[in-house]
Amino acid sequence: MANQEDDFKKVISHAKEYGYVFQSSEIYDGLSAVYDYGQNGAALKNNIKEYWWKAMVQLHGNIVGIDSAILMHPTTWKASGHVDAFNDPLIDNKDSKKRYRADVLIEDHVAKIEAKIDKEVAKASKRFGDAFDKEQFLATNPRVVEYQEQACSILKRMGKSLENEDLADVKSLIEELGIGCPLSGSKNWTDVKQFNLMFGTKLGASSENAMDLYLRPETAQGIFVNFLNVQKTGRMKIPFGIAQIGKAFRNEIVARQFIFRQREFEQMEMQFFIRPGSQREWYEKWKEDRIKWHWSLGMGKDNYRFHDHDKLAHYADAAADIEFKFPFGFKELEGIHSRTDFDLGNHEKYSSKKLQYFDPELNESYVPYVVETSIGVDRMFLAVFSNSLQEEDLGNGTTRTVLKLPAVLAPTKAAVFPLVKKDGLPELAHGIVEDLKWDFNVLYDEKDAVGRRYRRQDAAGTPFCITVDHQTLEDGTVTVRHRDTMEQQRVPKENVKRIIAQEVDMKHWLRRMAD
């Protein structure tokens, strides 16, 4: 665990040093669990959003995108169930005076059991070498099987207790597992209580007449209340989807793990409207489509897994998370939920407006069912960033820090260098920048020796470096260096655009989803 913590500290420090993520209001000592994205972070975040939007909206003829308001009529949140049921189970330690989410304490305990399984797998893999069969080992090794049963039984019991709102049993489980305060080790706990996560605000010029509002805790409701507007104006036929990227706000009491759990965050959600009774098939289809989208970025299939929910949200009849292996273990990255007709049905009831679809094939009207895919932009950012940060041993006692971002998402696609700041080389390099900037985000750098410039761009995640030297003056060729392999190739400068495009064009990456 200590090693994981060290790795994660490196991720946080690298994100700041290279202009990716800063603490919000840092000059005033910051604001807890709120972050700002720097110049490289904003670019990476925008590229992630574009990669999702292209795959979700542009490549689907039956999915459209909207951008709904953050502030909504307060009855929206009554209808959605958030006023009554949007809670986290919290527990206080009487000695350290620290507050924790009870479910997270239990999940962290299970993560330690899973770490023991990983340790056993690593030992066996080393012992058996190429003959090692991981699946068979996981299924037959008595110690590993026992660990798996322990983990499964703990999560099942927690899920059942939370579903039944048996908070006393959640506390009993924490006590039976001997879970102590992560800070002090003390096991002196209060009872578990529910805490509503919505931020309240007011609308109106005077406090007496002001209306109580909430900052939206999710973007989905903006889609549901616009269901008829979009369906009619877009002449959409079921099945069809509405997608949205937008900010959401949750008053997380135990926000932690850098940008993984924040109070202000961004979501990429798509609600897919379907005939009642077809939800199982669409749920499975969207699970398959979404995992393929993640795999297309080439971050390693072993770093993803599905986790089916034991505890279903009040509106769902099936739910699964795509979990990613973050530096602190496998955690939720994206959720796929079969929401039935809960949302549209409830909004119909509370608004007294008919939210139905007339199906010409069936010649009947019904409230559509919904399958949702929902991913946190910030979590996706952290997954990409933490997975890409690597320390490489180059031999001869030298190492390099390299951020091997998927080239399609990298903030800067290429850096252009003159070998020296004279003999007309800077002018030539600037000419290449002028040509490339219409197609790619590129930068010019002439400071320090070329080797140091290469290292700087490696650490910033830039996939290509292009060096202009005296030979360029003679024959018009430049050196193109590839970040991941450090290989260098001599090419005519006219070919540079094509070489970069082959690596960074979204269509080449998204086509992998069809493989």
From TrEMBL:
Any one GO molecular function term: bis(5'-nucleosyl)-tetraphosphatase (asymmetrical) activity
Catalysed reactions, semicolon-separated: tRNA(Gly) + glycine + ATP = glycyl-tRNA(Gly) + AMP + diphosphate
Record-linked SUPFAM superfamilies: Class II aaRS ABD-related, Class II aaRS and biotin synthetases
Record-level GO cellular component terms: cytoplasm; extracellular exosome; microvesicle
GO biological process, one term: glycyl-tRNA aminoacylation
UniProt-listed InterPro entries: aa-tRNA-synt_IIb, aa-tRNA-synth_II, aa-tRNA-synth_II/BPL/LPL, Anticodon-bd, Anticodon-bd_dom_sf, Gly-tRNA_synthase/POLG2, Gly_tRNA_ligase_bac, GlyRS-like_core
Major subcellular location class: cytoplasm
Residue ranges of every copy of the Aminoacyl-transfer RNA synthetases class-II family profile domain listed in the record: 198-418
Binding site for substrate: R101, E218, F265, E266, Q267, M268, E269, E372, T373, S374, I375, G376
Entry EC number(s): 6.1.1.14
Localisation: Cytoplasm
Keyword Ribonucleoprotein: no
Origin superkingdom: Bacteria
Keywords: Aminoacyl-tRNA synthetase, ATP-binding, Cytoplasm, Ligase, Nucleotide-binding, Protein biosynthesis
Alphabetical list of Pfam families matching this protein: HGTP_anticodon, tRNA-synt_2b
Binding residues annotated for ATP, in chain numbering: 250-252, 260-265, 332-333, 376-379
Function: Catalyzes the attachment of glycine to tRNA(Gly).
Family: Belongs to the class-II aminoacyl-tRNA synthetase family.
PANTHER family for this protein: DNA POLYMERASE SUBUNIT GAMMA-2, MITOCHONDRIAL, GLYCYL-TRNA SYNTHETASE/DNA POLYMERASE SUBUNIT GAMMA-2
HAMAP family for the chain: Gly_tRNA_synth_B (MF_00253_B)
Protein name: Glycine--tRNA ligase
